[in-house]
Amino acid sequence: MTVDQDWSSVYPTAASFKPNTVPLPIRMGYPVKRGVPPEKKGNLELIKIPNFLHLTPAAIKKQCAALSVFCTKWPETLDSDAKCEQHFPIQVKMTDFVSAGPSVRNPKARVTTLTVKISSLNLDDHGRKKLIKLAGERYNKETDMLTITADRCPLRRQNYDHAMYLLTVLYHESSKHEPWEKEKTEADMEEYLWESSPSERNALETLLRMKGSEEGSAPTREELLSSSPVQEYRNSVTNLKNAGESKTTLLQYKESVKNLLNL
Amino acid sequence: QRSFSTSKAISKESEESSAPKTGEKEAKVKEKKPGKSGKENLLDLLSAMKVDVTTKKKFQASKSQKSKEQPRVHPESMESATSMFQKATTEQQTQKESLSPELVAAASAVASSMPFKKSQTESELLQQLRKHESDTEVHRKGETNNIGNIIADMKVGKRPNARSPNRPANQIRFDDDGRGYTHDRGVVNEFDAVRRRKSLFTGKRLNIFPSMTDTTETEPKEVSVPSLWDIELAGQIAAVIKHLPRNGFEEMIQWTKDGKLWQYPINNEAGLEEESDVPFHEHVFLDSHLEDFPKQGPVCHFMELVINGLSKNPYLTVKQKIEHIEWFRGYFQQKEDVLKESEVY
Fold first, then answer.
1. Residue limits of the Small ribosomal subunit protein mS35 mitochondrial conserved domain (chain A) (predicted)?
2. Distance between alpha carbon B186 and the CA centroid of its chain, in Å?
3. CA B248, CA A243: separation in Å to the nearest integer?
4. Contact residues on chain B for A62, CB-CB shorter than 8 A
5. Do the Cβ atoms of B105 and B89 come closer than 8 Å?
6. Cα distance between residue B267 and residue A106, in whole Å
7. Whole-model pTM above 0.80?
8. Tens digit of each residue's pLDDT (9 = 90 or more) over B49-92
9. ω into residue B265 within 30 of 0, thus cis?
10. Counting beta carbons within 10 angstroms of the beta carbon of residue B68, is it exposed (0 to 12), middle (13 to 18) or buried (19 or more)?
């Protein structure tokens, strides 16, 4: 073979190893009786195994160049992940499975997954809370992602339609206000609300009694509520309840209580 | 009978080399009947010669039956002779009246393509032909029915492939005019081309003689059902038109068209087009099929569970799901009296 021979035309497609065509001095096989591995001529081992002589980097480059004619360009304005998120908030994942076997079918191929960030949907607070309640397990609080997996139908396209349908239904249902939602109790609340909690009641009553025992005008509830120590106390209690107990929140609580009770 | 040693030099494939020239001729005659319709010309026979070479003994046995084919071929093969051969044989026609002109033409063609001893070859061949002709006349009357048996015994459609067992399919490259094989050019390149031509009109025109437009027009054989010969001819035309793949990529294209190779990029749902027309709600929302069932009670509850299970099943078609529900409907209707008794229905 000449030195400037174009290898991709010697092996354009997958073919078995041809010892006279491949100019490499390859040896393969078990060295019998302390000998050397047998040479490549007439070597069945080399012929049996699959080779990638048709996929040299140069050949791949050529094929990519040939295929690039059929590709469309990536839009230049979508140059960051954030922009892609902003313009295309819904991401759909579908998988194709390739295997060597008699059949091209794979039952796992029908699964379609749809992920979307709830913040990109136009939902008010009530809607958001309702959606989270409706989605249940499918909502991830840390990443604020709603994941819908559809695999009930035999075909991928049907599952995609099903998932889009589910998203649409979720959105519209969470925007609606049902009459029985008014019966929401404290047990249904997702997060702690200080406004009508026992903590507010207790704090205000304590303060009222404190102020009442002293001389002077007893301030009204509203005044007390709007005063800064009370607000601080409110914040710290809310923090404690919602975010959990940690050093900072406890410290904050301590400070606010001290302020409140003028200790 | 004289066997020509030159035949060994001529034939490039090993299977042919064993046959002496006369044997070739005989094989040609034998070959003529099985695979060819009346429309095929003798050059086909020459091309067919190399594979189906029979031993002398086998030939002798069937010689009488085969050779009487020749007079039958007379009127039909007249149609398909080329201008070149027709003109070539007009001189010889006067001498060998008993033989069909096409046979004579073929004999002269064979002889002309031999490197040496042309006239001798030709005369010997024609002698043989005359002998066959005479034999034929003798047996003609009594054995017409045997042709039917022979035809019935022949296999259909295997001939084109049977000619080329030795050719590796990937490595055949045709010339641009579809004539010869670019590999293994030898002394007998011309003979090869002549031999391998599937029909008269596929070779390169030599433009020696003015083209005959009227006389070469053949009247198509009027048969209501395509006869064996017609099928054979159609297959051969298709084989000529189809270009054998020049490289691995074209081979893969051909296999993909044949359905032997999957379509890439792999689509796991290839072939399920019918199913893809079914919208998803027909799979998932099956409540509409529950109309004939009672609205309350354990039966209703049970059927709701059935519906729920079916909607989650991706392995059934909609039709199968509806059939399931139908079965239940029939079942509950059958057991209506039992259910009424227990006041459940």
1. 106-177
2. 29
3. 66
4. none
5. yes
6. 10
7. no
8. 544 444 444 444 445 444 444 444 444 444 444 444 444 444 44
9. yes
10. buried
CA B286: distance to chain centroid? 52
| Sign, Cα dihedral of B29, B31, B33, B37 | negative
Cβ separation B275–A13 shorter than 8 A: no
Whether residues A161 and B269 touch (CB distance < 8 A) is answered with no
Q: Are B15 and B169 spatial neighbours (Cβ–Cβ below 8 Å)?
A: no
CB nearest to B284's CB, from A14, A106, A162: A162
Please tell me which residue of chain A has the smallest CA distance to B312: A152
Q: Flag whether the ipTM exceeds 0.85.
A: no
Residues with Cβ within 8 Å of residue B321, at least 6 apart in sequence: B283, B286, B310, B313
Q: Which chain A residues touch B275 with a CB distance below 8 Å? A: 154-155
CA of A155 vs chain B CAs: smallest distance (Å): 7
Structure tokens at A21: 């065509």
**Count of A–B CB contacts within 8 Å?**
68
Q: What does each of the 263 residues of chain A score in pLDDT, given as a tens digit?
A: 888 889 999 999 999 999 999 999 999 999 988 899 999 999 999 999 999 999 999 999 999 999 999 999 999 988 899 999 999 999 999 999 998 888 899 999 999 999 999 999 988 988 999 999 999 899 998 999 999 999 999 999 999 999 999 999 999 999 998 888 888 887 777 777 777 777 777 877 887 787 777 756 666 767 777 777 778 888 888 888 888 788 888 888 888 888 878 76
Nearest to A153 among B251, B267, B284 (CB): B284
pLDDT tens sequence across B244-302: 888 889 999 989 988 899 988 888 988 888 888 899 999 999 999 988 888 888 889 99
Please give, rounded to a whole number of angstroms, the shortest distance from the CA of A152 to a CA of chain B. 5
Which tokens sit at A88?
């295309």
Q: How far apart are CA B46 and CA A62, in angstroms?
A: 46
B283 with A106: Cβ contact below 8 A: no
Whether A159 and B265 lie within 8 Å, measured CB to CB: no
DSSP designation for A27: B
**The dihedral formed by the CA atoms of B114, B120, B122 and B123, expressed in degrees to the nearest 10:** -170
**Alpha-carbon distance A95 to nearest alpha carbon in chain B (angstroms):** 9
